Amino acid sequence: MASAKIERRALTKYPFVIIPVSERSTTAPNGKVVYGTIPPHIAIHLGVPEGEIRLLNGFENSSNTGFGLAHISAKEQRKKTISGLGFVSIEQMVYRACSAYDSIHQGNDGRQLLVKSHGALGSRQVMLEVVIEWDKAKGFWHVITAFPTAVVRKPKIWP
User: Fold this and answer.
1) Which residue of 12, 60, 66, 98 has the smallest Cβ count within 10 Å?
2) Can you give the residue ranges of every domain in the chain?
3) Strand 140-149's sheet: what is its strand order?
């Protein structure tokens, strides 16, 4: 009887919350779930929330929509290109871009594009582009998609 009382009290104090697989954070190469941040001085400049950037497991739909690691991983050519740039994983590429971005560009629907110069691939300059979105309910930014690119077409908003 006493153990049931303790168990009930423990569940009240520490309720279980089961997070769907698609909403779970992946682990960055540094062993943490945070891939980067939007610090206060940049957030104030852009008029957006400051906070951590995370890569969630996400999902991919048959209509080629989705977010997170599953969405990025679903594109075979993209995985080959990422590997060809010397990254051992998608997580490594996303971490590199989110932890040391050079600029931020305005995305669609309130999203931001983090851009990191990666150097040259043959005669072309390569940049890493990561699309992030603020999740008000979770209180952090999360990665929608990421890809190498030669040209960033969206307007630069920082610095």
Assistant:
1) 12
2) 21-158
3) 36-38, 51-54, 140-149, 124-135, 112-121, 103-106, 156-158
